[in-house]
Amino acid sequence: MQVAWDTSHDEFTIEDYYYFSKLKKFAAEEGIEILDVHKFSELVNYDTIVFNYPEREFDRGEESRIKLWARRGKNLIFTAYYSNIDGVAENINKVLRNISGIKVNYDLVCDDQNNYGDEKFPVAFCGELKVVMPCSASISGGTPFVTGKSVFGAREGRIFVLGTCVFWDNYSIELGDNREFSLRLLRGEI
Fold first, then answer.
1. Neighbour count for residue 134 (Cβ, 10 Å)
2. What is the C-alpha to C-alpha distance for residues 16 and 124, in angstroms, rounded to an integer?
């Protein structure tokens, strides 16, 4: 299986060894090849597309193509960060406004009771999986699929939106069940 990891909107690259080498390695061990895709026009060739922290706004033509891909059932994964840092939540929300009822809120979820040693590292659940969702915004709309004190992830069809982009970085991927959660998300099994 091949997954497109978009970098055409200044997203964090999967090729960044310091941040994502473990995710890439764990995915490869499961038969998932994650490819850095620099040209937006090439994303059409993949069934799963990751937009991990898009810092640059999508233009209207790109928004239209994403809407078409959503209708065709591609797995589209959008990950943000807390408090609309770098305008990422705003960029994602502009795309989502025409294709779903999901919205990334401009907040920070803190949980002083259920956390991984820091209230900004709240623990949440995706089915039976216990996941750590560091520095996350909450999500409104759609069908929640990662929940705890707040909604950390929602979906609509094959569109998946998460309030954090660092649950699968080298630090967090081995916390809780984040590794298994990340692999299921890439395989579209959530």
1. 22
2. 27
What predicted TM-score, i.e. pTM, was given to this entire model?
0.97
Taking a C-beta distance cutoff of 8 angstroms, is the pair 10, 56 a contact? yes
Residues 160 and 185: beta-carbon distance below 8 Å: yes
Q: HEC profile for the chain?
A: CEEEEECCCCCCCCCCHHHHHHHHHHHHHCCCEEEEECCHHHHHHCCEEEEECCCCCCCHHHHHHHHHHHHCCCEEEEECCHHHHHHHHHHHHHHHCCCCCCEECCCCCCCCCCECCCCCCEEEEECCEEEECCCCCCEECCEEEEECCCEEEEEECCEEEECCCCCCCCCCCCCCCHHHHHHHHHHCCC
Lowest mean pLDDT among 2-16, 111-125, 141-155, 174-188: 2-16
CA distance linking residue 148 with residue 131, whole number of Å: 10
Terminal CA-to-CA distance of the chain, rounded, Å?
Answer: 16
pLDDT at 10: 87
